[in-house]
């Protein structure tokens, strides 16, 4: 496993993944599981974010505390990344959200960009691409390409499930980008789905199966 790929070992993530993968889990519970897992991964992925000192008056005294010094942009890949961004905004409401619309062509499995709401000159220190599924890696690579071309100094990726094929492709295209995951699965099937996986993450969140 490449050094910059982090797979969470948190027991609560394992517990929630079991229900996320299960075929009979309905969209309301599926969305809340995506949110819960995303919240934990967000804390793990922001472990090295820079802080600055801030003076805080408590009921007893004045003391030096710390607050986030970096500007962070969350970049959910539509549709499936949306539920991840909502959960992370609760933890860091100051984060900007840049929506990127990409869908995977069913025949070629190549990503097609249909929406890009990045500001013309994003003045962010860190852009975090959010997409629960890293399958062939095409969508993640395309999203990271867009962020880097826009001049984002640091980019990372948070996903929920990945296939080894996607990790290898991402590693080759963007070896500098840290990747945070809930699980690394076994392989892709013949139509590009992650196995054992969870099916189609967008359809299962939004009830479009
Ligand atoms: C899914 C998923 C990723 C992409 C992963 O999106 O959310 O964006 O496939 O596959 P890849 O690694 O092979 O590129 P999908 O195209 O199904 O769009 P949707 O979220 O709108 O359903
Ligand atoms: N996209 C999904 O939603 N699921 C997969 O298994 C692969 C790509």
What are the main properties of this structure?
209 residues; alpha/beta; Rossmann fold; eight-stranded mixed β-sheet; three-stranded parallel β-sheet; 6 helices; globular; binds 1-O-pyrophosphono-5-O-phosphono-alpha-D-ribofuranose; binds uracil
Characterise the protein shown here.
The chain has six helices and 15 strands. The protein has 209 residues and is of the alpha/beta class. Helix 3 links the parallel strand 4 and strand 5. The longest helix is centred in the N-terminal third of the chain and has 19 residues, at 27-45. The protein is globular and about 60 Å long. The protein binds 1-O-pyrophosphono-5-O-phosphono-alpha-D-ribofuranose and uracil.
Task: Explain briefly what this protein structure is.
This protein has 209 residues and is of the alpha/beta class.
If you consult CATH, what is the topology? Answer: Rossmann fold
Strand content: 25-35%
Order of helices and strands: EHHEEEHEEEEEHEEHEEEEH
What kind of oligomer do you see?
single chain
Mean pLDDT across every amino acid position: 96
Secondary structure class reads: alpha/beta
Q: Number of helical runs?
A: 6
Low-confidence stretches: none
What percent of the residues sit in helical stretches (DSSP H or I)?
Answer: 25-40%
What overall form do the CA principal axes indicate?
A: globular
Q: Please report the distance between the alpha carbons of the first and last residues.
A: 33 Å
Give the class-level CATH name. Answer: Alpha Beta
Number of domains: 1
What ligand molecules are bound, each kind once?
1-O-pyrophosphono-5-O-phosphono-alpha-D-ribofuranose, uracil
Please count the beta strands (DSSP E, at least 2 residues each): 15
Radius of gyration: 17 Å
Tell me the major beta sheet: 8 strands, mixed
What's the architecture, going by CATH? 3-Layer(aba) Sandwich
């Amino acid at each position: 496993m490449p050094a910059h790929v982090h797979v969470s070992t948190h027991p609560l993530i394992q517990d929630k993944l079991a229900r996320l993968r299960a075929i009979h889990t309905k969209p309301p519970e599926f969305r809340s599981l995506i949110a819960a897992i995303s919240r934990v991964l967000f804390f793990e992925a922001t472990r090295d974010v820079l802080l600055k000192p801030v003076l805080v008056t408590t009921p007893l005294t004045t003391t030096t505390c710390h607050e986030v010094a970096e500007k962070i942009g969350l970049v959910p890949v539509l549709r499936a990344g949306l539920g991840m961004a909502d959960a992370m905004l609760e933890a860091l409401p100051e984060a900007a959200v840049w929506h990127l619309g990409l869908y995977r062509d069913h025949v070629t499995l190549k990503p097609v960009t249909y929406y890009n709401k990045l500001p013309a000159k994003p003045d962010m220190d860190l852009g975090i691409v959010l997409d629960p599924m890293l399958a062939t890696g095409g969508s993640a690579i395309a999203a990271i390409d867009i962020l880097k071309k826009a001049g984002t100094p640091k980019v990372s990726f948070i996903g929920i499930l990945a296939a080894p094929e996607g990790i290898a492709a991402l590693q080759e295209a963007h070896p500098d980008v840290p990747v945070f995951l809930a699980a690394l699965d076994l392989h892709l099937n013949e139509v590009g789905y992650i196995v054992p996986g969870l099916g189609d993450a967008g359809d299962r969140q939004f009830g479009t199966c």
